[in-house]
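User: I'm writing a tutorial on reading structure tokens. Could you give me a worked example: one chain, its sequence, then its tokens, then a sentence or two explaining what the tokens reveal?
Assistant: Sure. Here is the example chain.
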Amino acid sequence: MRLTDLFTRTLRDAPADADLISHQLAIRAGLVRPVAAGIYALMPLGWRVIRNIAAILREEMNAINGQEVFFPIVQPAELWQMTGRWDTFGPVLQTFTNDAGRAFALGPTHEEVVAMLAAREIASYKQLPQHLYQIQTKYRNEPRARGGLVRLREFTMKDAYSLHTDYDDLDRFYERMYAAYERIFARVGVEAVPVEADTGAMGGRASHEFMLPHAAGEDTFAACDGCGYRANVETAEFTLDMPGPVDLLPVQKVATPDCKTIQAVADFIGVPTAQTLKAVFFMHEQPGQPDEFIFVVVRGDLEVNEAKLIKALGGGTLRAAADEDILASGSVPGYASPIGLKPGVTVVADRSVQVGANFVVGANDEGYHLTGVNVPRDFDPAVVADIAEAFDGATCGRCGAGTLRIERAIELGHCFKLGTRYSEAVGVTYLDEHGAERPVVMGSYGIGLERLAAAIIETHHDDWGIIWPSSVAPFQVHIVTLGGGEEIAGTAQQVYEDLIAAGCDVLLDDRSESPGVKFTDADLIGAPLRLTVSSKSLDKGGVEAKRRAERERIIVPLDTVIAWVQEQV
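And here are its predicted structure tokens:
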């Protein structure tokens, strides 16, 4: 391609709202252009990158017996209602009603469609296992689309689905998919870290995320410096220090004027924050049931993890309770206590309330707290579970010896062992070798392509622009001409044609711009190799060659340019 023909132009300045380097460079290099919040047009250079990523994904999926399909993005509501996700997936599920009054959703994922089709096609164990995948548009009505290509509303995903006779077969295939994901990330030049993860709205027995550690990431995981355990903070396990036995003190009400925070209360009474209890309030929503007010209690030095809390409640969704909800329970905001609540209020406590004694907690009376509070003597929660979020410096809950370190990260891919959740809901069964009907066991596996492109830029750039790995670069070679004259133009044209004939993707900068502009754009676009044709290089018998990631420049003789490029690529 010639730069004079390229639809997009480069930009010297990034948009004011672009915080991530990948967002800034994707805009400046002309890879993408914004259309609406969380919705971007892939321009010619950006689409070439996505196509190259897609080619790697296809190769790896085909290598583990994948069959490529293409499912509709518009999905009927009845399918989602059968699995219950129409009500539980949350506001990210974009729904609409057509002119005939039938409800649909724009697919954020395709488990329901796969289950429906499998119910029609699968009859016998002889047809299993199956591995289907697609590279297709998804839509999620993200409330906080951010980071350019990192969190989009409309995006491209490689989503794969596996169908099995039993969990053992799923486990065997899961290992193959896990290994394929490791190869994919290695091939695109990203050091993704696999971590155990919460199954969330997808459901199932287990899942793993592949994370790119990044200070500006939207996700967080915990890593043990001892045993190597890694898990998303939504599911990370940690241990609590076990204090020695102490005498239980009587409950006493004490004045705590102007002490509405945990730290203020602890300082005023003279105890560590770990000897206080924090109250957090939620409304719990489940399909077909009235919203339920949940009074959550956690040790004052810890934070509530909503993913763990939802699991402890058996599913559903959470939203913050309003002041009127809190007051209706008999609680006083800022001085709330699980003691003396109105009948029917559900109290859910973290396990930390059982590790310690003589806690300080609100008195449900403004300006007062209670000391000497103990569980279960003074209040008995309806549910006690691990609902606290792992923190930096916590003791690893897997080995019991190492220390957890918390890292921010960008999620790049997710693998789920779905089990029979969808097959039982939709009626996906098969007849085993004895003629008995059994539910099909499913798995689901996703990678976002635009997000992966952003991650590649985040890890492959310098102060001047993108440094693409050869495997995904929009062009392998960027030819720059300096100066006018037939010899320079003719030589550049010949090298350009010879490289294309040799199977290389080449971008020729044939513009009448200054050397500074051309070199700046070449660095910004980031092709792995740059060839410069100038009177100076021709006087030396060749072209000036430079790898984008290196400073060194060499003269490559004209008769060996093609061989040199092929060797480098």
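What the tokens reveal: The longest strand covers residues 404-419. The mean pLDDT is 94.
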